[in-house]
Each structure stands twice: as structure tokens, then as C-alpha cells.
Amino acid sequence: MNETLERWSTRRAFILAVTGAAVGLGNIWRFPYITGENGGAAFLLLYVAFVLLLGLPVMMAEILIGRAGRRSPMQSLGHLAGQAGASGHWRWLGLFGAFTVFCILSFYSVVSGWSIEFLVAAVNGDFVGRSAAEIGAGFEAFLADSGRMTFNHTLFLMMTMLVVAAGVAKGLEKLNNLLMPMLYLLLLVLAGYAATTEGFGPALAWLFLPDLSAVTPMVMLQAMGHAFFTLAVGACALMAYGAYMPDHQSLPRAAVSVAVLDVTVALLAGIAIFSVVFAQGMDPGEGPGLMFVTLPVAFAELPGGPLWLSLFFLLLLLATWTSSINLAEPMVATLQGWGLRRGPAAAVVGLAVWGLGMLSVLSFSSLAETRVLFGMNPFELVSTIPPEIFLPLGGLLIAIFAAWVMPEEATLRALDAGPNGFRAWRALVRWVSIPLTLVVLLAGLI
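RE: above sequence
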């Protein structure tokens, strides 16, 4: 495959695209509940530190491989390995990344379908006057309804693949340019509303006044893992985006902008969520149910609650939509590298992901008692092994390839940070990011 001719039209478009890829369930669903479970501000402090030491350098490594190769992830890795005189087997890392996102998108689409269901319910005012037990029971009934689950999974996946099929300029870029500003506007509106609640002060204290006694080895591992997960690194997806990066753009500046925007989303979402939770005297450590059970109860009891809850689930849907497009792109790019046109490649990927996703849909009903591996049902398997093991493994190999294998001249040119910036980045990746990624991988395995 020759170099791709597609490019993001502007530097801003590239930053918005990568931010759209990074912002998703990790920021709006996972960050609040994992922060609540791990001591609030102490976790936040570690998370930001590990974004700088772990997530950001590996993200830059992944993007620069795509930028240097200007091909699909698999083709870029093979091309650059050939230039370096290294083994051609490095190209299989691109295929491994495509398999990883194939697994992740299959359950991501199912979970994102939940946000469609909750958005419709919030707009209809279905949560008003209902207790946590009633909302929890309704959620369980929805999960067990394979027909509704299938409809939402199918709808969300169609929304995703239609955008990917349209291409870089007409699909991905156009949607990101529209949705990302809208997402930040919604976040600011929700944070502004949170400032009017009685829980705003306690929420700020919870998030920004760390109790260092809450720092434990487990909290540090959770912060490492989330810093890695939240920037969408490790699956060669950003490698595909890097192949479309404009020629004259500083990669470090763009990556730092993405990291700042990504962390800002998590912080604003945390402020909005914890303000409501504290205003209602609820426990911030509710775990994964914080989003789909606790929040509907908390919002329903506040003035204008149904409106604000509707905006919140709209925000969640927009974030998961832009993120899922990023997950689909490397698979489509891989098939394009094998000779398929973008439209048919998107259709093949969509059908395959839909089929695997149906196993996750049925994991809450007819396959609920089915155990595939390690005592897990299909949904538990694809929502655990790929994010916790495949992503860190992919990130580790990507970092090793960029910092140790790639030709130095190609890396220096793709990074576009000057000789001193290149040496600083390479030292950070080699001696800090790679060891930390290895710790994240071992923690996932254990």
C-alpha cells in the first residue's frame, strides 16, 4: 500500500479528532466512579501525574509511527521496520491492534446503547419519583430484554460506521468539528448548573484537596491503568489518525493539547456528577452503578432534574460516539491496506463487530450463565481482557518500537520537536513510560 493521500485539513481538526478518540466512557463513566472508589483528590493527583509520565509519551509514540509511515497501522509498522532493518513481524502488531479494537468496540457499542436508552427515558421524565431500587430494577429489566438491547446496539453501530464510511474529511473530521465543541459546551453548562447546588463546595473539596493517607499501592495501580486507558493508546487507533496528520504540525504541542482537553473533560464531568451526588447526601463511592442508578435518582430530586439529566446522557452519547469512530478506523484502514475500498471495508467491519457484540447483548439474558473463560461470560470476557491486558501489551510494544526500533531520522522528523525534544521524549519513553506500562500489564495479568 502506498502512502495515504488523506489528511486532516487543519491542525485544529487533527487535535479535535484525537481528542474525540480519547474522550469517551473512560472520562464520563469510568473516571467519576473510579475516583469515588479511590479517595477522590489523592487519586486525581496520581492520575494527572501518570497521564504526563505514561499516557502522553506513549500516545506520542503511537501517533508518530502513523505519521512516519503514512499508511495503515499494519503497513506503517512493516514499512518502518524494513527501513530500520528490523524483523518484518512487527507488522503483526497492527493486526493485533485491530483485533483489540474489534473486541473493545463490540462491547463498547452495547454499553453506548445503554446511554441511548437512558437519554430517551430522561427526556420522557421516567426517573421522576422513582427510588434507587426501582431504577436499578428497571435497568436490570432493560439488560434482560435482548430485543431492546439489540436495537440500541444496532442503532449505535450504524451511527458509527456511516461516519467512518464517509472518509476522513467528509466523515470523521466533519463530525468531530461539530460534536467536540458541542460536548464541551454541554459540560460547561452542566458544571455551571452544579455550581448552583449545595454539593458544589464539597465536590470541589473531594476532588482537589488530597488526603495523602489515601494513597496505597492499589490506588497507584488504578491511577496508572486509567491514565493509560483514558488517552485511547495501545490499539494502533491513534496510529491510523497519525497517518492523516498535517505535515507541518508539532506533535508534542498537539499531544499536550489533547491531554489537557481529555483531563478537562474528566474534571468537568467529575465536578458535575459529584456536586449532584453530594447535594443529595449520597455516597461518591457507589462504583459502576454511579452513572446508571445513582445519578438518575440524584438528578430527579433537583429542580429541573429531568432536563439536566437529559443533557448529561446526551453528553455521554456524544462522547461514546466520537470514541467509537476512533475504534473502528484502524480496522477499516487495515482492510483498505488489503485492497478494499473504504465503503465496503466499513460494512465488513460493522457486520463483524455487530455479530460479536450480540454475544455481549445476550450475556445479560440467554447467555448469562454461560462461562467462556476464567469463569466469565462473553460480555465480562471482552470488557475485561482486551482493555486490561491487550491495550497495555499493545502500548508496551508500540513504545518499544518507537523508542528502540524505528530509524532515528524518521522518528526525529515525525516527532517534530527538534533534537533536544526528541532526546528528552525518547529518554522518557525508554526509562519511565515503558517500565510503567509493564507494571500496568502485569497488574492486569495478576
